[in-house]
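call fold(seq) -> tokens
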Amino acid sequence: MRIVIIGAGFAGMYAALSAARLRDIQGVSPEELEIALVAPEPTLVVRPRLYEAKPETLTAPLQDILKAIDVVYVQGSTETVDTTARTVEIARIKGAKKHLSYDRLVVATGSRLFRPNIPGLAEHGFSVDQLDDAIALDRHLHGLAGRPARNGRDTVVVAGGGFTGIETATEMPARLRAIFGKDARPRIVIVDRNSAIAPDMGAGPRPVIEDALRTLGVETRLGASVASLDDSGVTLTSGEHIESETVIWAAGMRAAPLTAQIPAERDNFGRLLVDRDLRVLNVAGVFATGDAARAASDNIGNYALMSCQHATRMGAFAGNNAAAELLGVPTKPYHQEAYATCLDLGEAGAIFTRGWDRTLELVGTEAKKTKQQINTVWIYPPPAERAAALAAADPERVGEV
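ret:
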């Protein structure tokens, strides 16, 4: 028997850990139940931190932990999925192809930034979506130091006033001063089509966010969106043109394209619809998890968000349930009633909220300590030691806040 997991992000990593945990509990050998994880590299990209400087350091190796728990790593990119034949086709190094059969498939392919067809965006826009994107932006920012301080060199426009946009914008003043010198006066502008900043955060935390933006000197252009980009900067739908050599797109996410190969219903974000056990509806043998799945997180109408917090726990339930079906033991319905957010605000601190109504619990330096703990400890893989790694993958405990 074989479980194939596609993706080495937070959901894929925890799916592998959890499946291996249940296999171990049931006393089943790796020869009887093979768990294979397919990804281009055996590396976790710590994606929630890609708004920070030195993004090339924001990865964690997975090879040792996979070996410790007897999970087979298959290097390559999954190109096609045949749910009838129950096989996946993997593109390997130098164009070689590998076909891998599965008894259960876990789709943990994550999400990608949605880039609309805005004139000039592909040519002139940056992002912090993927590791290569963040590295390219960081190199660009350092390259600005050798250019004349005119024509918007010191101006950064961030398109999108949600989580990623705010964290990117509030980190930018310190990043640019580190590059240009402590006396630099960078200009940061957030553009968002909504009438209020951080629309998903609600009215409670918003005054704290707005105060942080004022403290950092971050400007906002609300009720407007990007109409076009060119060499000189960005033009907004309001008609305003902002000279800038750095425009960062941080607006909107979609499930990774591979989900389109699963013959199942998807939501407007491309996420596969799943049941409470994270099985893809009406497709035998396939589970979806993390940003690839639209999953109910409780019984009162809340659904998992495209976030690390939800992906880790969803991954643990998906891996457990894929193994449970093959081993003939009961599955565990996914649930995640507790929900917290911790939004970085750069040198202005952070905010920590709890619950779907985003009740403020911590602000400023105290919230910043929590954010640093999350970013540097909590979201990293467990140690590459078998007992500790398997213990960390209990679905009922993963992602507790």
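The radius of gyration is 22 Å.
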